[in-house]
Design brief:
single chain; 251 residues; alpha+beta; three-stranded antiparallel β-sheet; 23% strand; globular
């Protein structure tokens, strides 16, 4: 199994569900091609867990890493796409004000207090944790969470810095886009979409998450039938657990 040669960066990402006419739709952002990590790829909203997230996490019970990850996922989703999750009802004006404060570097806890906003970390459901050992690409130790889009949430918006597009689509639709050469998916995103494509709604996805342990996934390379594959464990709920190295897209 591959060993990490660099210090991993704590990160969190949010898989946001909304009901569709058939299968549920998920919220995707397209990364700017200029970004060093996952440039041009479709991903879920998310980013680094910053010191302010860890400081705010001390006010809550639970595993500090998990709590900080939930807080980061909520903050990053608001920053990137303007959708408030776990924050109660917000007006378009208050969303804009909070995003401006965060862009200035104001600590999330300070911003929440200034706007009298609640923080419901229980609205997020742990789904997975990935820490690919990429060299020389920077390594992220990423917590994946699930959540439902709040009622009457505003339409997502593009931040025009890290991301250039935001849209709702089913997991299978995005997999089909990638297979047709119309989208780029890095290895962890593809594996998670294959898993998410199995579920007909948020409740089914959360039930599956409850039935599988959250264990850090670090893909490794091994030869199978003489071909090098990138592999993940077979007991964590993923329907496809290997991919030929010639097909793998890394961040």
């Amino acid at each position: 199994m591959a060993e990490r040669s660099t210090v991993s960066i704590p990160a969190a990402t949010l898989v946001l569900f909304r009901a569709g006419a058939g299968m549920p739709e998920l919220l995707f952002v397209e990364r700017s091609k200029a970004m060093a990590f996952a440039g041009g790829a479709l991903v879920f909203p998310g980013g680094r867990v910053d010191p302010g997230d860890h400081a705010l996490a001390t006010r809550y019970d639970g595993d500090p890493e998990d709590v900080a990850g939930r807080i980061a996922a909520i903050r990053e989703t608001l920053e990137e796409v303007g959708v408030p999750v776990g924050l109660g009802a917000m007006t378009a004006e208050s969303i804009a004000e909070v995003r401006r404060a965060l862009s200035r570097g104001d600590p999330f806890g300070t911003v929440l207090a200034a706007h009298d906003l609640p923080l419901s970390i229980g609205d997020l459901v742990p789904f997975a944790r990935w820490c690919p050992a990429h060299v020389p690409v920077r390594t992220f130790d990423t917590h994946f969470y699930l959540a439902e889009v709040p009622p009457h949430a505003p339409d997502p918006i593009v931040d025009d810095t890290e991301n250039v597009r935001v849209f709702w689509a089913t997991a299978q639709a995005v997999l089909d886009m990638a297979d047709a050469g119309k989208a780029t998916l890095i290895f962890p995103t593809r594996r998670n979409l294959e898993r998410l494509a199995q579920f007909d709604g948020f409740e089914a996805a959360t039930a599956d998450a409850a039935n599988h342990p959250i264990r850090t996934i670090t893909p490794w390379t091994e030869k199978r039938d003489g071909v090098s594959h990138l592999c993940i464990p077979t007991d964590l709920g993923y329907p496809i657990t290997e991919e030929p190295m010639t097909d793998v897209v890394r961040g």
